[in-house]
Design a protein that fits this description.
alpha/beta, 10 strands, 12 helices, four-stranded parallel beta sheet, 46% helix, six-stranded parallel beta sheet, binds D-glutamic acid
Length: 275
């Protein structure tokens, strides 16, 4: 019988963006197996209501639980903002979102106690970053900026174009006018714009990547629960990653090939509404 610590981590996102979280877990926890689900049929979540995002996330959790996972990572800022508590009520496994690890780092990083959050409309409306930051330090001023145009630009591969710079500048102007010294890239796609954002805001501003912080938080949670895999994944299984989607598996594979440090050998399409 294999020990629970050798089981995979269940990761999910509204689509492709959560691959930036998968990438950080692959880099920072190379011995862990991953089962990734991307809800490519129902993306985007970023402009949907809480009720809908919770319902979708619960279906995905039910699917992931069929894969004998040992922990769940909500690799989507919008689903983390809206569905974390609901999913924690549904399973005894550790469930992590990306919002809290991002908030923890932002509170550590800010020197003037002014933090900007770039995110989808739904994440900003949920105020989850604000609540999490204020739980840690009520004196931090949090300035939210919904950036709805950035996800489609990234998915089209326009990470390095004049038009994207202009749109970014428009969003960043608002944050910079509020004198933030730290900005959370609070959406799965935004770390792919990191170079452009850094160029536009300059060296004085600290950029926080919740995907990276989540990988470190996951390591800690697995360790605390005796769940870190001590059998290197690539020894037990030469390809420790499995990918599932609800639509357009081919497009998913192409996009994943640009983000992940490994090839996506296959992405299986599953009928997520049945779960
Ligand atoms: N994954 C989403 C997030 O991080 C962005 C894409 C979407 O709107 O579904 O908020």
């Amino acid at each position: 019988m294999t020990h629970l610590s050798e089981a995979p981590i269940g990761l999910f996102d509204s689509g492709l963006g959560g691959l930036t979280v998968a990438r950080e877990i692959m880099r920072n926890l190379p011995d862990e197996k991953i089962v990734y689900f991307g809800d490519t049929a129902r993306v985007p979540y970023g402009n949907k209501s809480k009720g809908t995002v919770v319902r979708y996330s619960e279906q995905i959790l039910r699917f992931l639980l069929t894969q004998n996972i040992k922990a769940v990572v909500i690799a989507c800022n919008t689903a983390s903002a809206m569905a974390l508590e609901a999913l924690r009520d549904k399973t005894d496994l550790p469930v992590l979102g990306v919002v809290s690890p991002g908030a923890v780092m932002a509170v550590k990083a800010t020197r003037n106690k002014r933090v900007g959050v770039m995110a989808t409309k739904s994440t900003i409306a949920s105020e989850s970053y604000v609540k999490e930051i204020h739980r840690l330090d009520p004196e931090v001023t949090v300035v939210g900026e919904p950036c709805p145009l950035l996800v489609p630009l990234v998915e089209e591969g326009w990470t390095n174009t004049k038009i994207t710079d202009e749109i970014l500048q428009h969003y960043l102007d608002h944050l910079m006018a509020q004198q933030v010294d730290t900005i959370i890239m609070g959406c799965t796609h935004y770390p792919l714009l990191r170079n452009a954002i850094a160029r536009l805001v300059g060296d004085e501003i600290t950029l926080v990547n919740p995907a990276y912080e989540t990988a470190l938080a996951l390591k800690k949670v697995l360790d605390e629960n005796g769940l870190l895999n001590t059998t290197p994944a690539n020894k037990a299984d030469p390809y420790p990653y499995r990918f599932f989607v609800s639509d357009e598996a081919e497009r998913f594979r192409d996009f994943a090939g640009m983000i992940l440090p490994v090839d996506v050998r296959s992405a299986e399409m599953i009928p997520i509404e049945k779960y």
